[in-house]
Specification:
The protein has 324 residues and is mainly α. It has 14 helices and no strands.
Length: 324
């Protein structure tokens, strides 16, 4: 993927993290659950977490090959544990602070598992066909597990909550590794493929919207919001969005815009960590009784998260608290 496309994807990760998790996982005096605009924002932002894992898989595929494997692996694990311990400590000591989405036990656990077994990932990355087969097998397994969970809701084996289904996050991470592969990138790097992906995105979104509206909620409680419902479409959307973004060349956007996107992309991990805190602090000061107020708070949350992450990244010590 070219640098411009990668920056666009990372910026999109920042935006979707803020819009999805602040709208969907928070409560205020305004009944936003029934508002079309906020429902739409929530809907299009469901790619936030999958996008994070895909982007990290893609970036790791490039950085790991440049360093000693064991040293790189241990540095990643230490960095992740440092993030987790620090922000969890802040969470327990400072009451107004809220855990960012990345600082969730299942999120950190998934990342630690991925990096603990990263030598296996590296072995797969050197064998394109095997990597593609393993990724496809995980995709099929995700569907199979959810079908079994649907038909056997009382079976404890099939009752693992969606966020703890580690294979889902490994699937997205390996997808990022696969997209980095030179043979695969040559295939989706063709201009026609990028255009086709861009055209397909709105149609997939429309299909997903209709799917959820007429089918999703009737099975939500039984199927526990797992991969076969939203995840199946989300996986396709993430891949299509990355292919489409890769088709955007550096000279296709104006220089100030390109620089802004590049700067925003660097703050992705920091935004995932900090935006909960800013949102919860803002709603203590700004009463939300209207859609306008809600959107204004979301915008402020995004700006404050990006600005804080940018400042923290400038110092060698503080940057370790918002990135790994």
């Amino acid at each position: 993927m070219n640098t411009t496309g990668l920056n666009i994807i990372k910026t999109l990760g920042c935006l979707t993290a803020v819009t999805f998790f602040t709208v969907y996982n928070t409560y205020d005096d305004y009944n936003y659950n029934y508002d079309t605009i906020l429902a739409f924002l929530t809907f299009i932002s469901t790619i936030a977490t999958p996008l994070f894992f895909v982007v990290n898989g893609y970036m790791d595929a490039g950085s790991c090959s440049e360093e000693n494997t064991s040293e790189w692996q241990m540095r990643k694990i230490r960095a992740i544990l440092t993030l987790f311990i620090f922000w969890f400590t802040v969470y327990y000591l400072w009451e107004p602070y809220q855990k960012g989405y990345l600082i969730q036990p299942w999120f950190i656990f998934s990342l630690v598992v991925i990096y603990t077994f990263h030598p296996v990932v590296e072995w797969l990355a050197k064998r394109t066909c095997i990597l593609a087969c393993v990724t496809g097998a995980l995709l099929i397994f995700s569907f199979a597990y959810d079908l079994l969970a649907l038909y056997h809701p009382q079976n404890q084996v099939f009752s693992i909550p969606a966020q703890f289904r580690i294979w889902t996050w490994i699937l997205y991470y390996l997808t990022g590794q696969l997209l980095f592969d030179h043979k695969i990138s040559r295939l989706y790097g063709r201009p026609r493929v990028a255009v086709a992906a861009a055209i397909a995105i709105p149609f997939v979104y429309i299909f997903t919207w209709m799917y959820e509206k007429h089918f999703f909620f009737s099975l939500f409680k039984v199927e526990q919001n797992s991969f076969i419902l939203t995840g199946s479409q989300v996986y396709l959307l993430v891949v299509l969005i990355i292919i489409a973004a890769n088709g955007v060349k550096a000279d296709a956007i104006k220089r100030p815009v390109g620089e802004m996107v590049g700067a925003l992309g660097k703050t992705m991990t920091g935004v995932y960590i900090l935006h909960y805190s800013f949102f919860n602090l803002l709603i203590e000061w700004i009463p939300i009784h209207s859609l306008t107020a809600k959107l204004f708070v979301i915008l402020l949350t995004f700006l404050l998260s990006v600005a804080s992450s940018t400042l923290l990244l400038k110092n060698k010590v503080t940057r370790r608290l918002i990135t790994f």
